[in-house]
Amino acid sequence: xxxxxxxxxxxxxxxxxPGHAQxxxxxxxxxxxxxxxTVKTVENGFGDPEDRVTLSRAGVxxxxxxxxxxxVDWCRDVTGDGVPEVLLSGFSGGAHCCFTHxxxxxxxxxxxxxxxxxxxxxxxxxxxLDGRGPLELIGSDWRFAYGYGMSFAESAPLPVVxxxxxxxxxxxxxxxxxxxxxxxxxxxxxxxxxxxxxGGVLVEYAARxxxxxxxxxxxxxxxxxxxxxxxLANYGPDIQQDMSDVGMxxxxxxxxxxxxxxxxxxxxxxxxxxxxxxxxxVIGKEGATLRLYRAQGSEVVAGPVLxxxxxxxxxxxxxxxxxxxxxxxxxxxxRDDALLRDxxxxxxxxxxxxxxxxxxxxxxxxxxxxxxxxxxDLSGVAGHVAAQFRDVKRTPEQQAEVRRRVQAAxxxxxxxxxGWKGQEAFALTRLxxxxxxxxxxxxxTPTRAxxxxxTTVGFTDAKTDSEYVNGERFTMIVNLARGxxxxxxxxxxxxxxxxxxxxx
Length: 504
Hints:
By secondary structure, this protein is an alpha+beta fold. The protein folds into 4 domains: 1-123, no CATH class; 138-247, no CATH class; 261-363, no CATH class; 382-401 and 409-504, Nuclear Transport Factor 2, Chain: A (Roll), CATH 3.10.450. It has helices spanning 181-188, 198-212, 214-222, 228-242, 251-254, 367-387, 396-413, and strands at residues 5-7, 28-34, 37-43, 51-57, 60-67, 69-76, 85-91, 99-105, 111-119, 125-127, 136-141, 158-165, 172-175, 262-272, 275-283, 287-296, 299-302, 307-310, 312-313, 319-320, 323-330, 336-342, 349-355, 360-362, 431-444, 448-459, 472-483, 486-496. The protein has a 5-stranded antiparallel beta sheet, with no helix packed on it. Strands 14, 15, 16, 17 and 18 form a 5-stranded antiparallel beta sheet that branches. A 4-stranded antiparallel beta sheet has the order 6-7-8-9, with no helix packed on it. The N and C termini lie far apart (53 Å).
């Protein structure tokens, strides 16, 4: 029994984990203590108002968590300073989502050390992973849930490790997963006799990417039985791109950004081969700021502002950011360049950039720059074509404007068809779905280049009645050459990708 947590209520009213059965309960209050503080939980089942848990002392409330269900996960000293910490949890309701965890050090006054969005996992486990000092907190990273053709039942989380590290605002727990490769492998790597399932295979592949590198992970994947070998060959490039930010999500926090600020970003060797950095965008109330974050000794420092864009809000109050970093692209030098998705003009384009410690430069006469223009023009056509099928009432004038935008996008993209080498004509006017998930420059010389993208492509037909146009996965191959007028596309094509978990 944890002696630091003294329950004051009757056994029937003990604090419930948010993961317990979701039956409506009458209003109930539970009191407990953690250190010198009172923890008060007020539960109202799934009715209004929301449940809440408060942290107070001498009549002063220092913290409140409200959610559909709330709870106290544990009370213990995890920092090693003799002062206990309390982990409060909130659960939004639903079959398996979503949990949020709030860790407070019970100093005077209490100090928040972590807010962790844990998605489908109901707690954080405190363990000693490095053999010294504060305990680490182990949670779950559900970025792969439902991904790559899996159902939720097949999905599995990556482990995520939070370490107590210094930040400009004081020590706090931050995501530090890459610092624990041995733990990652012990968690994820399976024994030969273990029964494999898609989520477990995916987590093992991802762990190998993190701890041994992409080439080693791909080599391991090629030796798997069906259907996993073909599945990882199909989605491997996407998976590697999707996990580029693992271990760096909290680099802005370590550099002084508010820990609760929203952010997005991609990781890569933007400064030098083998030197990881984080191209991160911090989203505020009115603007989003892009910077490069890099390790400097044991600290993380932020570079100068590279780009600032305004932030608007959708109908649900969620931020809408017109530009954000989306893709890391390895160059022949071993350094990485980046693509930014830019929708400021109303149509999508991809901005190819090279980042340094002091600034960011757009790549124009460059194979990545030319490929980005092709991708942007096709994405623009698909967006406008799909918008014709949006379920909204339009006046005749509005309908004419939609058609005008489609025609303008098609006209802009038309010159690219000169290089199309597919067996059938590319139906540009029916292109209703075009996205790409990863990009690789398999050839990258001063005079020739080949860009390879994993894409999803779909066309409208007489039965199309929605803006969500179904698509199929293709490998898009773009060959480029440098001539007297600079870089240009010599030819491009789409090759169907195979390797789904369940082939139709």
